[in-house]
Amino acid sequence: xxxxxxxxxxxxxxxxxxxxxxxxxxxxxxxxxxxxxxxxxxxxxxxxxxxxxxxxxxxxxxxxxxxxxxxxxxxxxxxxxxxxxxxxxxxxxxxxxxxxxxxxxxxxxxxxxxxxxxxxxxxxxxxxxxxxxxxxxxxxxxxxxxxxxxxxxxxxxxxxxxxxxxxxxxxxxxxxxxxxxxxxxxxxxxxxxxxxxxxxxxxxxxxxxxxxxxxxxxxxxxxxxxxxxxxxxxxxxxxxxxxxxxxxxxxxxxxxxxxxxxxxxxxxxxxxxxxxxxxxxxxxxxxxxxxxxxxxxxxxxxxxxx
Length: 306
Prior knowledge:
The chain is built from 13 helices and eight strands. By secondary structure, the chain is an alpha/beta fold.
């Protein structure tokens, strides 16, 4: 059994995009460096989207070149269209995260076009990137894969169809995203199995939110089905501004504690990870940071995986 688990810290993007305040660029860079120093080797540093709609991401183009100077860090950025993908590529991103919502209603609210049209946009991005000299990994996030706050139930069959479509147009990796946090473990298992049936090992990751308090339980269900990569956010911040009711991501600190305690290697030093919280709290005093580990302290019997 593969005991390595890859974590992508999405705090600088998903965690900040709904924050009540604006994190200064200098603080954001210091925070990202602290996360990398804790052992996080993949960080989603921002998004190339309209600064009018998501002003917290307006400095991504300035931040990204500086973050690229961190040795050994895989730098990810989100974009929703070809213009944003080109900007991410030109800024030097190693990975492009691209959302394709299963819910047509959410897709139109989030990116201004329906699901099928967004798949066509992904195809155009893949064609453009493949024609460039430098490779860039393209990750498709199949959003609202476990339910939608606007449409309600999202059929597992449709989740698999959308995953198959993004695989056909050339996405390198696929994630199932619980955009509004409606998943439960049985549904995670069902959706992961259905998606694996059509895209195989290209399904690599889960992006989970903790709206109903089931985030870690859902991560464990994913582990049981062979998933070995997860998005998470320090302090459990985050949510989608275009999905009513969406709340924070699963907490990186608690996820690391669970995984390492179970013998899964993340490469993350939990003590150093907790030390990255004060800067975030000081920079965004209106936000409430979550974490059972931060509240209780690291237990004396904790032992990182070896």
